[in-house]
Specification:
The complex is a heterodimer of chains A (504) and B (329). With 504 residues, chain A is α/β, with parallel strands linked by helices. Chain A has helices at 44-51, 74-80, 97-101, 116-129, 145-158, 175-190, 202-208, 231-239, 293-300, 323-328, 338-341, 349-354, 369-382, 399-411, 429-444, 456-462, 485-492, 497-502; strands at 6-15, 18-28, 33-38, 59-64, 67-68, 82-85, 163-167, 194-198, 211-216, 219-225, 257-266, 270-278, 282-287, 308-313, 316-317, 331-334, 362-363, 366-367, 417-421, 448-452, 465-470, 473-479. In chain A, strands 6-7-8-3-9-10 form a six-stranded mixed β-sheet, sandwiched between helices. In chain A, strands 16-19-20-13-21-22 form a six-stranded mixed β-sheet, sandwiched between helices. Chain B is built from 13 helices and two strands. Chain B has helices spanning 6-31, 39-64, 72-86, 105-128, 134-153, 163-170, 178-196, 198-208, 210-215, 220-246, 257-267, 279-298, 303-328, and strands at residues 172-173, 176-177. Chain B has a two-stranded antiparallel ribbon with strand order 1-2. The chains are: A alpha/beta (504), B mainly alpha (329).
Chain lengths: 504, 329
């Protein structure tokens, strides 16, 4: 028996102009969960891609179960027993769960035709063993993201994978779903399967992993037992600086009311949501996933029509029928899903920054390119966006830098009201800190900010007031001083503030 | 994933299609013993590519929106017969309107362009308002317009056009054939639209990610409508040039031109998944197709065999382009 299921030693990987991995190690023991942490751009993804054969290392040794390997494709890695659960899942939505699990390895009957019965039965066995309560005959497209992820894990198990790599598996999951995922991971461990767990979320790392390897700038900083670590040391290892500078909320002058929302409703989605927002204020929106926070913001911004309710900006009633109207009224909306509704992945950094403010920079009918260029250059500088030049396609930037590009896009429209929906989702600690700093200084400039976030520490540290939503309704509001994780959680699960306080 | 060299790479990528064109010209020049490079022949190439070139500009914009336009050839046909019928000589044997006088050329051009634009507008309307997939909407327009071309012309070519009209396709200025001038002007206009106007930048944006475009405050329906209308308009321009050059309006004209235009556009680097493409690229794509056709003519390759070779070269050009993109990402 080998001590390690996977050993990567001295891995080097160069891309033109970048030394992405500088002799990096990773050692994973069988039957353990091994956390992999580091800022975006630290080399985690590249290392994983080397492990599964998507990239070839320039030098270094990879041993899988003691045997030196060099995979030429994901397929080879899969056959040896390494599976990866990707951030973005790609199931076939019209096929059944069982068909997805056995995709590419269909069991044939003696006539050479697909034996659906056996496939269903085998899939059912695996699901049962893993205690995943989904019938194998369900249509994949009807499942939630969380369930699809579990199916991918079941697929890995059915392939007798001995190492499963999970890249940010919880980024789209609710807390309940996360717990279920963790149970499944425990089951995997019990079967002797090793899990490499990539995540930015501290809580999860501490909860689920046995060991953690931390990377920074293409180097392994350290590999330690999780039990020997705490939050502070972990962050220090990741960013090379301490936690105090993490949430930076400066004192902002709270000014007059700029936005009043009254009785906003959209049938079947949310009802009767009212709130106000002042200049210089950061208004947090807390709640569980599915509470309707994003939907309120989408409606406020004119992406979806409202059914009832009034919106007043600076005391005047405004009719917002489209995002165009919203932008003209001084609003900006950083959406929660960068790739789906934010980025133009195959367009340049310049186009991505300029698109929402092009109208302000016309000479007659033509675009004033030099003005645009200087605005973009300035944005790249102020937010320290790491890009070789403005013409770089935005798909080649790291998550944090992509997010900064989107923030720049909205700042270029000189908004007075900024709606930030999960602004730090899926970005690394360093970029997070920069976003917090930026929010704080924007508030100090007198901008009004709405922060929708599912991360408790973030919302507590950054908000002046917190609106809590539950199942499409605003259930209450807390000031910064009143707010505590317990109160928010109680309210988010459906207890109005009054009941909660009464209970004490 | 290159960062520092990416600008160099993008330059190479940008011009790789141009290198293919230059290579093609060299090969054909050598094989033809220099015949290809004679001025008269080069002008001929320009004349030959102008029609597909003009159409491919509109098609390129459509493809940048992640759409497709199959109706170009049929719009060429309907515009051709309508325009021709209005500029037939009074004594023409096949005159559609017996005993009438030819209309002033200017107003005829206007009518032709309007018909083309209207066809495109209907395409755009079906796609933007009624959310019909572009493939289906423009397929409908293709049969619809072709049908009307035959109904209108009663299924017969309409010739004997007045010289003031024919000069558009047959004359030349400074020794350059008029169709080539028209193409050049269309390339310039399309280039300016794409690179220097809101319309152009929004076209790239909505083709790259329509959801993001909506959130960015872009009226996506309006610009989709505009792009298809412009494509129809350019088909009409191409039709007028072609009708004037051959001196007759024909309901069967422009058969499968849409496919040549799409091929030119894609060879020129336009991505069928949207967000990428340029007017210059479309021009080079049309040139590659035209140079190849002309060269094979000179080399006395039979028309049947030419088709086969064209197919191969188109596919190879696109494979090269696609592979290059894969390497970058």
């Amino acid at each position: 028996m080998n001590q390690y299921v996977l050993e990567m030693i001295g891995i080097h990987k160069h891309f033109p102009g970048v030394h992405a991995l500088k002799g990096v190690d990773l050692r994973v023991k069988p039957g353990t969960v091994h956390g992999v942490m580091g800022e975006n751009g630290a080399g985690k993804s590249t290392l994983m891609k080397v492990a599964i054969g998507l990239y070839k290392a320039d030098s270094g040794t990879i041993r899988f179960k003691g045997e030196e390997v060099s995979f030429n494709s994901i397929h080879e890695a899969l056959q040896k027993g390494i599976s990866m659960i990707h951030q973005e899942l790609s199931p076939l939505p019209y096929m059944t769960v069982a068909q997805n699990i056995f995709l590419g390895r269909e069991i044939l009957n003696r006539f050479g035709l697909i034996d659906h019965k056996t496939i269903d039965r085998e899939a059912g066995k695996i699901l049962e063993e893993l205690k995943i309560n989904i019938p194998p005959t369900r249509i994949m497209g009807e499942l939630s993201v969380a369930q699809m992820q579990l199916i991918e894990i079941a697929e890995a198990v059915s392939r007798n994978a001995e190492l499963v790599i999970m890249d940010e598996p919880t980024s789209a999951l609710t807390e309940k779903e996360v717990e279920h995922l963790f149970e499944i991971i425990h089951n995997l461990k019990a079967r002797g399967v090793a899990v490499v767990y990539i995540s930015h979320k501290m809580d999860e790392i501490f909860k689920i992993t046995d060991e953690v390897s931390v990377y920074r700038d293409g180097e392994l900083i350290d590999c330690r037992k999780t039990s020997e670590l705490n939050r502070e040391t972990l962050i220090k290892m990741m960013v090379g600086r301490s936690i105090d500078q993490f949430f930076q909320k400066g004192k902002a002058q709270i000014g007059e009311t700029i936005l009043e929302v009254e009785g906003l409703s959209r049938r079947g989605v949310f009802r009767d949501v009212s709130f106000t927002l002042k200049r210089g204020e950061i208004l947090g929106f807390a709640g569980l996933v599915g509470a309707g926070r994003t939907e309120v913001m989408e409606t406020l911004f004119g992406i979806y029509p409202k059914e009832r309710g009034t919106i007043r900006i600076k005391g005047k009633v405004v009719e917002i029928r489209s995002p165009y109207d919203a932008i003209r009224s001084g609003m900006a909306f950083l959406t929660e899903d960068r790739k789906r509704s934010g980025l133009y992945l195959n367009l340049s950094v310049r186009d991505n920054i300029a698109i929402a403010s092009l109208k302000e920079h016309l000479k007659g009918l033509l675009i004033n390119h030099s003005q645009i260029r200087s605005i973009c250059e300035q944005a790249v500088q102020t937010l320290s966006i790491k890009t070789p030049n403005l013409e770089q396609q935005v798909m080649f930037l790291s998550g944090g830098n992509q997010q900064k590009v989107l923030v720049s896009r909205w700042l270029a429209t000189s908004p007075e009201i900024l709606i930030l929906d999960e602004p730090t989702r899926g970005i690394d600690v360093g970029a997070k800190a920069e976003i917090y700093k930026l929010m704080s200084s924007l508030a100090q400039e007198g901008k009004a900010i709405i922060l929708v976030s599912s991360e408790m520490p973030e919302i507590l540290a950054m908000s002046d007031r917190i609106v809590v939503m539950h199942e499409g309704e605003k259930i209450g509001e807390l000031t910064r001083d009143e707010a505590s994780p317990e109160k928010i959680l109680h309210m988010a699960t459906g207890e109005p503030l009054a009941t909660f306080q009464g209970a004490h | 994933m290159s960062r520092i060299n990416s600008s160099l790479l993008s330059v190479l990528k940008k011009y790789s299609i141009l290198f293919i064109l230059i290579g093609l010209v060299l090969v054909i020049s050598v094989l033809s013993g220099g015949v290809f490079l004679r001025i008269t022949n080069l002008l001929n190439v320009l004349r030959q590519i102008s029609v597909i070139g003009i159409i491919s500009l509109g098609v390129t914009m459509v493809i940048i929106t992640a759409g497709i336009d199959l109706s170009s050839g049929a719009i060429v046909a309907i515009v051709s017969v309508v325009v021709a019928s209005l500029v037939q000589a009074p004594n023409a044997a096949d005159r559609l309107f017996k005993g009438g006088q030819p209309w002033p050329v200017f107003s005829v051009l206007l009518i032709g362009l309007l018909i083309g634009a209207l066809g495109g507008l209907i395409n755009g309307g079906l796609i933007a308002r009624f959310k019909i997939p572009p493939f289906v909407a423009t397929l409908g327009m293709m049969t619809f317009a072709r049908g009307w071309a035959f109904i209108y012309s009663q299924g017969r070519p309409r010739g004997s056009l007045i010289p003031q009209f024919e000069i558009i396709g047959q004359g030349s200025i400074f020794g350059i054939p008029n169709p080539a001038w028209v193409l050049l002007i269309c390339v310039l206009i399309t280039h300016v639209i794409l690179k220097h106007t809101l319309w152009g930048r929004y076209t790239y944006a909505l083709g790259s990610n329509i959801q993001a475009a909506i959130v960015s405050g872009i009226n996506t329906n309006r610009y989709i409508l505009l792009v298809y209308t412009y494509a129809g308009f350019l088909s009409a321009v191409a039709s007028i040039v072609l009708t004037a050059r051959i001196g007759s309006g024909q309901p069967g004209l422009g058969m499968s031109y849409e496919l040549d235009a799409i091929a030119a556009s894609v060879i020129g680097g336009t991505s069928l998944s949207g967000g990428i493409g340029s007017a210059g690229g479309a021009l080079i794509g049309a040139l590659i197709i035209g140079v190849m056709k002309n060269g094979l003519d000179i080399l006395n390759v039979s028309a049947d065999f030419q088709q086969v070779m064209r197919a191969i070269i188109i596919v190879v050009a696109v494979i090269i382009d696609v592979r290059k993109n894969i390497k970058r990402s």
